[in-house]
Amino acid sequence: MSEWIIGIIGGSGLYAIEGLQDAQWIAVDTPWGKPSDELLIGYINGTKFVFLPRHGRGHRLSPTDINVRANIDALKRAGCTDILSISAVGSLWEELPPGRFVIAEQFIDRTFTRPESFFGKGLVAHVSMADPVCPRLSMLAADAARAAGADVSEGGTYLAMEGPQFSTRAESRLYRDWGCDIIGMTAMPEAKLAREAELPYALVGMVTDYDCWREEEDGVEVADVLKVLHLNADLARSLVLELARRLPEARTPSPIDTCLDHAIITAPQARDPAMAARLDAIAGRVLKMAGQ
Hints:
Layout: E1 5-10, E2 21-26, E3 39-44, E4 47-53, H1 68-77, E5 82-91, E6 101-110, H2 135-147, E7 152-161, H3 169-177, E8 182-184, H4 190-196, E9 201-209, H5 222-246, H6 273-278, H7 280-289
Parallel strand pairs: 1-4, 1-5, 5-9, 6-7, 7-8
Antiparallel strand pairs: 2-3, 3-4, 5-8, 6-9
Helix pairs in contact: 2-5
């Protein structure tokens, strides 16, 4: 049996995968509230996969309404060792046309209404986000996407916007000036919270549109996004199957697995016990080491 347990966060249609064995939906309670949906847990090629519909089945939740802390906590409680995010994105460059899969390497966070940390008053921590994705999981995802038949670009910078409205043309041009490659509404604070939970994270962005920086075209419309998304759905499911085939049986440790070792700054005697209890899944490893 594989040592990996892969959490997959993505759209509802992603989970209709042939070959998913012993699949069952499991409800998980968290101290942060309810996650977007139940978790679909099953096995592919001997590896355990845990699927979470980011917006809930039927797309009930807007990006702003997603309880990201509950989502990441639920995946951690389910035993996930790594998280792969698969999401729709807009393109900010001609070279990244609709249908392209982009493996994100960096993020710029322009969200402003979402809780961005598990930590806070009573128990403070600062994790590094200099390199926000796991390079080995990103490489595995890129290889799996190519094997599935996708056109793949690696090393993109993802602009995370608040939404739920799409960009203005001025914003879209600004993000191009910043050197961003793709734009979406869900990667932040998802990537930040995954890091705080010591879960290596990678993101595959499926390009659905050119945002609105191209003056000769109309702005983004949901119908256009959905059309390309449906075309990409089979590729995304094949990507997951190929990833299961390519995972090494032995999961070697990642530095991200222990990134909280030196991140908690609050002295043990000053920590809020209620906050520590709330962090039992996210930071239980280091809190137990400190006798909290």
